[in-house]
Amino acid sequence: MKCALVGSDHRVLHTERHPTGRERGPEAVVQTIIEVASGLAARGDAEAIGIVVPGVIDEANGVARYSSNVGFRDVPLRDLLQNKLGIAATLGHDVRAGGLAEARLGAGKGRAQVLVMPIGTGIAAAHVVNGVVASGAHGAAGEIGHIVVRPEGPKCGCGQLGCLEAVASASAVERRYAELAGEALTAAQIAGRIGEDPIAARVWRETVAALADGLLTGQALYDAELIIIGGGLAESGETLLAPLREGLASRATFHRVPEIVKAKLGDEAGCLGAALLALELLP
After folding, report:
1. How far from chain centre, in Å, is Cα 257?
2. What is the band of 22 on the pLDDT scale with cuts at 50, 70, 90?
3. How far apart (Å, rounded) are the C-alpha atoms in residues 248 and 277?
4. CA dihedral 117, 123, 126, 127 (to 10 degrees)
5. Which of 31, 138, 188, 202 has its CA 20 to 30 A from that of 167?
6. In the prediction, which pLDDT does 209 show?
7. Cα angle at 228 between 223 and 230, to 5 degrees?
8. Which of 175, 176, 236 is nearest to 203 (CA)?
9. Pick from 246, 257, 259: nearest CA to 220
10. Element containing residue 238 per DSSP (H, E)
């Protein structure tokens, strides 16, 4: 859990990190969230609180409908926090909130049409238009990781075969390399071996090709002027971005090819996004 006190000028005044403790079950996670939020609010005379979590989020009603990561099922987090702290609260989606922060405060600052795509253990996206992120009719917008790019590919956690997330996330890179090389390496280590290890180079080419296919579909749908790549895989920098730009450009037909850049805010993006959502509650 990444937590912060943030001023109305978006300046971070204090930060904390706490273990989620999801192995204790969803009820214990909720209690931890409430305790941490109470402690933060007491430190800084907070006027509003924003919280963002993964999964399917009903932002209008402040309910975490479904999150496989922490086991949430119809948890009314917004009301639980408001009742405990006595201040206005809002609930959002972690990737969409992080995308909002990256678009407003990070690499997308000053741009009107931005697609933010973090690539980590999974893949998702946030489409930000004029500083507003779309959540969809059911709180499930931006699931670009579940575009099927390899119909005969590995089974995804969602049940489909060949989802982008199943073949091109950081965890998928690690699994693929282990299958071919019989050695367990992190995605960062695999990226570092590309020039000397033909298996690493092959896995990277396959990954970039799948990402380019997924982004082509994304560009057909969103027509972004800027795509921001974040998450752990983006830490490889131009090792990922340069061939990804080439791959997308080579696939484009009628599509306008967007600029592709690395995210600036790192793993604090979601926390800053939560603050932006909270600030919107203030007069």
Report:
1. 22
2. confident
3. 33
4. 70
5. 138
6. 98
7. 140
8. 176
9. 257
10. helix 238-251
Please name the helix (run of DSSP H) or strand (run of DSSP E) that holds residue 247, with its range, or none.
helix 238-251
Q: What are phi and psi of 252, to 5 degrees?
A: -70, 140
Structure tokens, 163: 């989802």
The string of pLDDT tens digits covering residues 73-82 is 999 999 999 9
Pairing of strands 113-118, 126-129: antiparallel
Q: How many residues does the chain have?
A: 283
Query: Do residues 210 and 164 make contact, with C-beta atoms less than 8 angstroms apart?
Result: yes
Rounded CA-CA distance 276/60 in Å is 16
Three-state DSSP at 63 gives strand
Q: Provide the pLDDT for residue 45.
A: 83
Quote the tokens at residue 231.
Answer: 């998450």
Cα(67)–Cα(122) distance, integer angstroms = 13
CA 31 to chain centre: 24
Go through the domains of the chain in sequence order and give each one's CATH number. 2-97+268-279 (3.30.420.40), 110-264 (3.30.420.40)
Q: How confident is the model at residue 248 (pLDDT cuts 50, 70, 90)?
A: very high
What's this model's pTM, rounded to 2 decimal places?
Answer: 0.91
Q: Are 274 and 97 in contact (CB under 8 A)?
A: yes
